[in-house]
Write a structure and sequence with these properties.
The complex is a heterodimer of chains A (109) and B (201).
Chain A lengths: L2 H13 L3 H4 L1 H12 L2 E3 H8 L3 H13 L3 E8 L2 E8 L1 H20 L3
Antiparallel strand pairs in A: 1-3, 2-3
Chain B lengths: L6 H10 L6 H18 L6 H24 L2 E2 L2 H30 L5 H8 L1 H20 L3 H18 L4 H26 L10
Helix pairs in contact in B: 2-3, 2-8, 4-5, 4-6, 5-6, 6-7, 7-8
The chains are: A alpha+beta (109), B mainly alpha (201).
């Protein structure tokens, strides 16, 4: 493989990084939703340490991208909002992990 | 935000945070102390009532104390399967414990192998209760349950050699676990005040 070909591959791998997920707060939210089936706002806030407003705006971006689904349900007659990763979101997160591993594996020592 | 993203650690933290409230410790301590009191009152068979009370306390406290403070989460199916397996193990061991405890109080017409277990009832109970704690520790991923298992084993093995009535050991064990649970509950309530903001408001 020629040096220019290697550089092209590395550039491609970096360009393939999902920029929606790559933002640190959104990555943290995606990672937390990836390991559970569903969670509410409060749980995510306690686990991530993000502020309410910050979290809402990032979750809206993830929802708009189709990665997070917001579900309204009634628990003990009270409205409750739960969040979960969509299939698209799970696939995107797995792809993101793979790409990130690829980028760092390809870097020279 | 300089946290390292480690999915296993995130999953572990998400899961264990649910059991840092001391509720499970108190729920375990209730039937232990109740059993000690019931032995004194010569009504050990009624411990089942306190077992049910402990389960109701656990469910109620989680709903009233834990969820409003750290939120609601549903774990994936493989985790709930682990809990179900653990619960079945706990139920089987509890039944065995109940039989040994019951036979210890009646001691009539028992087979020889059971007679040996009953004769050494402190060791038998110590092993069974320790096994209960080990299963609970595995099921709920709470390391302090392993410490309770060790404590139980040490106390009951000591009880085999140093004679004091069984209820002394049960009371001491129950009070230690209850104190630990209350300490954790107070720490939890202080650390996580009730949320004022809500997405559903």
């Amino acid at each position: 493989m020629t040096p220019s070909k290697t550089n092209d591959d590395e550039l491609n791998a970096i360009q393939n990084i999902n920029k929606i997920i790559h933002e640190p707060a959104r990555l943290l939210l995606m990672a937390h939703l990836f390991v559970v089936e569903s969670a509410d706002f409060l749980f995510l806030q306690r686990q991530t340490g993000l502020t309410w407003g910050n979290m809402s705006s990032h979750l809206r971006k993830l929802e708009n991208a189709g990665y997070v689904a917001v579900e309204k349900e009634f628990i003990d007659k009270k409205p409750h909002t739960t969040l979960k990763l969509t299939d698209k979101g799970r696939r995107a997160f797995k792809e993101y992990r793979k790409n990130m591993k690829q980028v760092f594996e390809d870097l020279p020592e | 935000m300089n946290q390292k993203i480690n999915l296993k650690e995130i999953e572990r933290k998400a899961y264990t945070s649910y059991h840092q409230d001391g509720v499970i410790d108190i729920a375990i301590a209730i039937p232990i102390i109740a059993f000690a009191i019931l032995i004194v009152l010569d009504r050990p068979g009624l411990v089942g009532v306190w077992g049910v009370t402990a389960v109701m306390f656990y469910a109620g406290a989680k709903k009233a104390l834990t969820v409003p403070r750290i939120g609601y989460v549903k774990f994936p199916q493989q985790r709930t399967e682990r809990i179900n397996a653990g619960m079945i193990g706990l139920a089987i061991l509890s039944l065995a414990l109940g039989i040994v405890a019951f036979m210890q109080t009646t001691e009539s017409g028992t087979p020889s192998w059971l007679a040996v277990l009953i004769e050494n009832y402190m060791l038998t109970l110590g092993l069974l209760v320790s096994a209960l704690f080990l299963i609970a520790g595995y099921t709920f991923r709470t390391k302090r349950m392993y410490a309770y298992a060790l404590l139980t084993l040490v106390m009951f093995v000591a009880g085999h050699f140093i004679y004091f009535p069984l209820y002394y050991y049960l009371t001491a064990l129950g009070i230690l676990i209850l104190a630990c649970g209350l300490f954790m509950m107070i720490r939890f309530v202080r650390k996580y005040p009730k949320a004022t903001e809500t997405a559903d408001a």
